[in-house]
Specification:
Strand order of the largest sheet: 1-2-4-7-8-3
Shape: globular
Number of helices: 4
CATH class: Alpha Beta
Number of domains: 1
Oligomer: single chain
Radius of gyration: 17 Å
Distance between the termini: 27 Å
Structural class: alpha+beta
Helix content: 25-40%
CATH superfamily: Peptide deformylase
CATH architecture: Alpha-Beta Complex
Order of helices and strands: HEEEEEEEEHHH
CATH topology: Peptide Deformylase
Length: about 200
């Protein structure tokens, strides 16, 4: 099921997600809907806050045509082919460590359509998480995959990519960000009147 993606200006994007404790069919259904929504929007990651739910759940898929897979990884200590574990569902993810090496790269966000900016992030991470059955996993990765996971885990903690944007990029995007927030506020006001 395709879900509506929240836009900058909606308060849920600033909420820290609640840990997930129930691993039942409804969680699997939600994760599948998030994956479907992410693919429909031509994204590579989506966090629960982006569909209006403050929960520690995100999805990532870099196994798509046109995505530069220039990264290395170890999934539970092995290197299984990407098509065996992507799209990836991360429940209650926690980044355990970062490399000292950093990289600056342009990022976008489905909650900020048309807005991009340069962001410096650690090049490599180790992240622990659970799957939709509650089974624990460990992922060590670098490059684009590490960047994508960091972006989504930030969302789960109420941190947005504009908070990490390089000053020049943020200055260039400021007007577009303001227009997006104003548009979102008008949408929320209209929706509130419709439900009144």
């Amino acid at each position: 099921m395709i879900l509506r993606i929240t836009q900058y200006g909606e308060p849920v994007l600033r909420e820290k997600g609640k840990p997930i404790t129930r691993f039942d069919p409804s969680l699997r259904d939600l994760a599948l809907s998030m994956i479907e929504t992410m693919h429909e929007a031509r994204g590579i990651g989506l966090a629960a806050q982006q569909i209006g739910i403050a929960a520690m759940l995100c999805v990532v898929d870099l196994h798509q045509e046109g995505v530069d897979n220039g990264f290395s990884y170890s999934f539970d200590g092995k290197q299984p082919p990407l098509d065996l574990w992507m799209p990836l569902v991360l429940v209650n993810p926690a980044i355990e460590s970062f490399t000292k090496e950093t990289d600056i790269c342009e990022e976008g966000c489905l909650s900020f359509p048309g807005i991009h900016g340069e962001i410096e992030r650690p090049d490599g991470i180790q992240v622990s998480f659970q799957d939709t059955e509650g089974k624990p996993h460990a992922l060590v990765c670098n490059g684009y995959l590490a960047r994508c996971v960091q972006h989504e885990v930030d969302h789960l903690n109420g941190v947005l990519f504009i908070d990490r944007m390089e000053k020049d990029s943020l200055r260039d995007a400021k007007a577009a960000i303001r227009r997006l927030k104003e548009r979102t506020i008008r949408y929320l006001q209209k929706a509130a009147k419709a439900h009144a």
